[in-house]
Amino acid sequence: MDTIYYYEKVRLTEDEASFIALHFVNGQNLDSTLDMKANSENAVILDILNIIKFHFNIEIEEDSINYSRFVTHVRYFLQRIHGQVRYDSEDDNQLFVQVKTKYAETYQCILKIDAYFMSKMNVSMTSEEQLYFILHINRLTMRENQIRSDHGL
């Protein structure tokens, strides 16, 4: 209270000082809650990337546009899960069947990721969510494989 008086020439009552102190404490709690949420999301993203790396036996270039797109997709997916907003359109079922058949290896990776979500968050991906994950992972892995072959790896 002396510091406020020194700089502002205002004397605060005990109640006013307590009220201001509570704002500081609440602000710190909010920051730590946001940090914990971000850390939790980052941990899930890293786990998913590790599943992909091990499944396809590749390294993923983290400064590529495909990596950024994939991470953004996963972040939005996690936000939808936490907000309990899920997408599953019956119209896309035929497309899902075609894509999972065409990219069977990527679909096998999706099943591992889905098992991870089930064990970690008790959530299973809908077929529409799996479809988008297949497309993103396929793009990510195809580009990484192309980079490897271009460099003779």
How does this model look, in words?
By secondary structure, the protein is mainly α. The chain has one domain: Orthogonal Bundle (PTS-regulatory domain, PRD). Helices cover 78% and strands 0% of the residues. It is built from six helices and no strands. The protein starts with a helix and ends with a helix. Mean pLDDT is 78; it is low at 27-34. This is PRD domain-containing protein. It comes from Alkalicoccobacillus plakortidis. Residues 36-147 form the PRD domain.
**Strand content range:** under 5%
Task: Please tell me the CATH architecture by its name.
Answer: Orthogonal Bundle
**Radius of gyration over C-alpha positions, nearest whole angstrom:** 23 Å
Number of folding domains? 1
Give the oligomer, counting copies of the same chain as homo and different chains as hetero.
single chain
The portion of residues assigned to helices is over 70%
Main β-sheet: number of strands, strand sense, barrel status?
none
- SS content category: mainly alpha
Arithmetic mean pLDDT:
78
Which runs of at least 5 residues are low in confidence (pLDDT < 50)?
27-34
CATH class equals Mainly Alpha
Find the CATH topology: PTS-regulatory domain, PRD
In the CATH hierarchy, what is the superfamily? PRD domain
Discrete helix count: 6
Q: Which series of helices and strands comes N to C?
A: HHHHHH
- The separation of the N and C termini measures 65 Å
